[in-house]
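Q: Given only this backbone (257 positions), what sequence would you predict?
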């Protein structure tokens, strides 16, 4: 992306989002950075004076998201790229199914993303070679234990962006979906299970930027891990379930499920 772009990036205060913000700012782009936590964004704005617009907001609040769009519109009048990266993860621990947990994850990952899409599209329509990017997950390739809420939310994001690609083509807005494997972030630091082929946030950001530059429909990484998931996902269902059930935790009480 050698030409300076006007970019809105959500979830920019840590992990992949912060790494993306740092690398995109270093390339000279104008950035509107959104997160709930302001200090990391303000520190980056000081490092790149005149390039960064810092806007704190709760993306599950539609009024707050509309105000973000109004500030971007007042500052730049349009967007060339929107990267909707904000998200959360909570794991389900059966035998108790927690509907409230599912609702919390859906509220952030799906409804929060939807609020941002609603705000971004009018600005993208006024942009140059506009592109909408959503961050999903490689968990959508294979159902995994404890991922009922997170996987369902990211499956919804996948379908949402794949459908948007069809409808936005007539508007000239390109759509990309990011499907990362395990990435070192504050969110994954809390995971209590092995995370094979994990990459750093910096490497993840490089892969995303490279994929956007190449106009890729889906940006997935690391390659070997994604290939493995796709192979498992295409196995006969009985074999796939037999393999992935091995990852499940044993029930605390026999027969409790």
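A: Predicted residues:
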């Amino acid at each position: 992306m050698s030409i300076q772009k006007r970019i809105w990036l959500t979830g920019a205060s840590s992990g992949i989002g912060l790494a993306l913000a740092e690398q995109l700012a270093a390339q000279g782009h104008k950035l509107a950075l959104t997160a709930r936590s302001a200090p990391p964004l303000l520190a980056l704005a000081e490092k790149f004076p005149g390039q960064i617009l810092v806007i704190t907001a709760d993306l599950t609040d539609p009024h707050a998201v509309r105000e973000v769009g109004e500030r971007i519109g007042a500052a730049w009048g349009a967007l060339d790229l929107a990267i909707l990266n904000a998200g959360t993860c909570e794991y389900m621990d059966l035998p108790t199914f927690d509907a409230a947990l599912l609702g919390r994850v859906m509220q952030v990952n799906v409804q929060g993303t939807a609020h941002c899409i609603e705000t971004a599209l009018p600005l993208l329509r006024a942009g140059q070679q506009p592109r909408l990017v959503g961050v999903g997950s490689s968990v959508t390739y294979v159902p995994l234990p404890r991922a009922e809420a997170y996987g369902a939310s990211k499956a919804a994001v996948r379908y949402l962006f794949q459908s948007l690609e069809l409808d936005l083509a007539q508007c000239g807005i390109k759509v990309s979906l990011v499907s990362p494997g395990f990435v070192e972030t504050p969110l994954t630091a809390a995971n209590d299970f092995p995370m094979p082929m994990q990459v750093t946030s910096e490497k993840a950001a490089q892969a995303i930027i490279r994929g956007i530059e190449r106009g890729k429909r889906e940006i997935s990484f690391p390659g070997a891990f994604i290939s493995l998931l796709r192979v498992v996902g295409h196995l006969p269902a009985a074999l796939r379930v037999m393999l992935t059930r091995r990852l499940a935790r044993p029930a605390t009480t026999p027969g409790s499920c």
